[in-house]
Amino acid sequence: MVRITQILSLPPETLNRILLLGGPGIGKTEITEQYARELARKEGRTFVDLDLLDDTAARRLAEDCEGHFVYLRVAAPHIFPEDVSIPKPIASGDVIDFLTPVRLKILSRCRGLFFIDEMTNVKRADQRVFFYSLVQEGKAGWSWRLSPDVIVVLAGNLPSMSVDAEPLPAPLLNRLTVFNVEPPTVDEWCAYMERKHGDAWERAVCEFLKEGPSFLFEPPKEPEGLEAYPTPRSWTRLAVQLHILGGIKADEDLVAEVVYGNVGRSTGSKFLNFYLSRVPKEFFRKASRAVENV
User: Fold this and answer.
1) What's the pTM?
2) Of 182, 213, 239, which marks where a domain is finished?
């Protein structure tokens, strides 16, 4: 098993057709996008997230993507075989051609990275078979084929950690390099927060995690429930929310609920004690309930 951050050092040829298999919220999506951005920079290309393009810009890019590096993240359960090629009658009447969605047309012509997330959450058998040729040959439907310059990366969760996750068919696994990945280190997470959020996050979260690194990722004992649990993703969300709450001098009770709602009561209570011991009292506005109890 390797840390998810270690894939950043892989050459594109090794990353291509890889399955990142690990717990939820450990950074598979973030690291894959970071890889794409860094590769674009190394190749001197302009990074383009296709999810952020409007239709006009997407059509323009489909015609000319010279000097660009495109990135598209799609959740595997949202990809259906019938979505790839749309029948279009030809004037002769007895022949049809197939239309290709514009973002898939871009991926058939440009340099880029196609990230297929939540692969282990696919339920339909025809969807799973659809990925066989897409992974092996870069081909889907009657008329669509990926550019050979596009890197394909898949990701999924372990069934033991996600109620929606299921084992994958052996023929699909045989077409992939399976990487079992674990969370980043606390130092790597803190560096990510600095890079991504600048001053807009609560650094006490980083200090707490450095004192107790095991709190960074604590998967739930059961794959279903109603209690939040700590992951790099939930700590990220909490650190950003605490920074925002600090600007409005929120009630202590409200801050506590935000902490529990992101990382659960067990770990959350430990963090809250640490946090409250380091934050000046004037930071908070006492809740009426707390005042009555004094």
Assistant:
1) 0.87
2) 182
Sheet of 46-49: strand order equals 2-3, 177-182, 18-22, 150-157, 111-117, 68-75, 46-49
Instruction: Please state, in angstroms and rounded to a whole number, the distance separating the CA atoms of residues 66 and 61.
Output: 9
Q: Are residues 174 and 204 in the same domain?
A: no
Contact 151, 113 (CB under 8 A): yes
Angle in degrees, CA 66, 75, 67, rounded to 5: 10
pLDDT in tens, 212-269: 999 999 988 877 788 999 999 999 999 999 999 886 677 888 999 999 999 999 999 9
DSSP annotation of 216 reads G
The length of the chain in residues reads: 294
The residue range of the domain holding 200 is 186-292
Question: Domain of 86: which CATH number?
Answer: 3.40.50.300
